Amino acid sequence: MMRHLEEFSRRVKLSGSPEELESFGYLRGQLESYGLSTNLVQHDAYISLPGRARISIGDWAPECITHSFSRASGPQGVRGDLVYAGSGGPDDFARTDARGKIVLLEGIANPAASLRASQAGAIGQIHISPAKHLYEMCISPIWGSPNPEQLDLLPKTVVMSVRNSDGEALKGRLSNGEAISAVLTAEVDTGWRKTPMLEANLQAGRPLDDSFVLFSGHHDTWYYGVMDNGSANAAMLEAARIFALNRKSLRRHLRLCFWSGHSHGRYSGSSWYADVKFKELSARCVAHVNIDSIGARGNTVLSDALSSNELQALAAEAVRAQGGQEIDGHRMSRAGDQSFWGIGIPSIFMAMGEQPAGKGESVMGPAIGGGGARKGAGLGWWWHTPDDTLDKIDPELLVRDTSIYVHAIGRLLTDEVLPLDVERQVNALRRELTSLGEALEGRIDIKSVVQSAGILGDAVKRFQERVKLASGDDATSINRALIGVTRALVPIDYTRGSRFDPDPALRQNPYPVLDPLRSVATATAGSDQFFFASVAARRALNRVALAIDEALAALDATYKE
Fold this sequence. Notes:
α12 runs parallel beside α15. The protein contains 15 helices and 11 strands. Strands 1, 2, 3, 4, 5, 6, 7, 8, 9, 10 and 11 form an 11-stranded mixed β-sheet that branches. It has helices at residues 2-8, 18-33, 90-94, 111-119, 164-175, 226-245, 268-276, 278-284, 312-323, 395-414, 422-439, 447-469, 475-494, 515-522, 528-560, and strands spanning 37-56, 64-66, 78-84, 102-106, 124-128, 158-162, 181-202, 212-218, 253-259, 285-290, 347-348.
């Protein structure tokens, strides 16, 4: 794996660049040498590559960067007065007149703040980095390449980031009442371009059927990106080598996908693949295993590892067996290349390993935990910076993290009955609906849907008892039922309801399809907001009721075979 990383460290792999395509050729050659069949395709994607940036405040030009999907300023730049708007949350913009202004914001650049700034009429943003480092970011809130109806969501502001010390100095001047005018100049190359996608397939030696496990990670990078995402790509190659040597024991096929457009196209590669392979993925894919940024120096904390409900038990087992730690059961977050929830594919893992909270230099990186208290503090200060180089990899942790992935994938490939815990998913849905039913008392009646969820819960318990007593001959029908339940329930757990149009790349509640009901619960009864929300709530209930019926039908079918 370290030899692979030496190869990856030779190139900056911007999405759609010749250097990236050359590196994809290396991946393909390695995989074919292990005996996998490969298909390297080029597809159109909407990509944004940030270029030179400058902030001019009088004679002062603090060091800065611009961001993927920032609006390009043109050579004259954008001039405006600065106004402080906190972290860029809804309340911050509600009390700030940002029209025609450049907003000074806390924290790394992000899609939510950019969307709010654009909607508030701002012309620019200056983000104060939480550290001395400048972090490259993609600020589009659109998941994948945009369709015509989504174009208005693209950022309308020129977006910059400055170092923490410079940002604090600006904030101090504003708080002292000084009027500050700035000129933002940003070069950003945004448009359609061809990007690569590599698919590799390993055929099982004794397949139960034509199902496969999808193992994916992006290959494009910021700078050399040895941790993000070279480490993950090295692990993918090692897993492919190991499973190829043991293909005779595999009961399911393994498919590896390497994406472009993750960093510069907001997951354009994986979302394109979900679009063009929707039917095949729905029919054959049993689980999606994602890998991103593993094996880094000091990233010892494993407790925040992510999984959807159905695969939590498997995630816990793999981390315990190979990493010696317990996970806290965080749900998948709205990040990474999780482009397959609309299809109904359960997912496990994203990043693996974080810095311990409160130790060492101030660290940076995405919060890989999907909600609740976290014990990790991100992926390391070098994340999304030029310092993500080979010296940031710890070979022992790289082996540890890869072993966790091989453990989980190995069970998915070899277990006769898929290790999918649908009972955990159904119980989570029942709790959510029961809690909502109490909050909605006297406002909207959801008793019938709560009762249906209870019936589904009872059916799943009976099904799980049958699984314990099943013989090998029952595996096919049992697996078909398990997949049928996930196809029905994963979309309502992780989408607003559409199976075909990805939701924005913004934070979501568990079961976001139920958000209209949450709005009814908090609206003033009898208000316009209450009645508008009630319309959406009834439609959301229909989506949930249909999903429950589909899950019941999948379970019932096993008793008729």
